């Protein structure tokens, strides 16, 4: 029995080392904590944002700030089903493509402050059904489209301060309750 434990020990250590290296592997322009669950990526305003591999699924907190992103796409965030907090501040984002957040099904907090968004609509946040906090402060939002927040049944806090809202086309901006 002792022989089995000794033989199995190197294999266990090898697997633990591999998992630790993989989870802590950070893309070049980011800083990460030791467990790989918290990533901070800050550019200088002219850089392209980091590219995230779809096999990085342990991230819980992700900040991508000060990059030159005109249209937010799904590949900017990747498939991160464990992600709960996402900060995309100061990126010059002008639009959010449909499905941009499709890989972030458990996101609770989203910050899109200090970008260049002019309009938000039903497709902007459609995949964020668990979202509780949404901040859109300091954008150039002029129009809030019909049913923009309808899929956000868990939303508790919305900050749209310092925008240029001129038109609200939706009759009902309240989120649809997720639970009957």
From TrEMBL:
Signal peptide (from-to): 1-25
InterPro entries per record: Dev_Immune_Receptor, Leu-rich_rpt, Leu-rich_rpt_typical-subtyp, LRR_dom_sf
Superkingdom, taxonomy of origin: Eukaryota
Gene3D superfamilies, A to Z: Ribonuclease Inhibitor
Alphabetized Pfam families for the sequence: LRR_8
UniProt keyword annotation of Repeat present: yes
Keywords for the protein's UniProt record, in alphabetical order: Leucine-rich repeat, Repeat, Signal
Chain segments annotated as coiled-coil in the UniProt record: none
SMART domains (alphabetical): LRR_TYP (SM00369)
Protein name: Leucine-rich repeat-containing protein 24-like
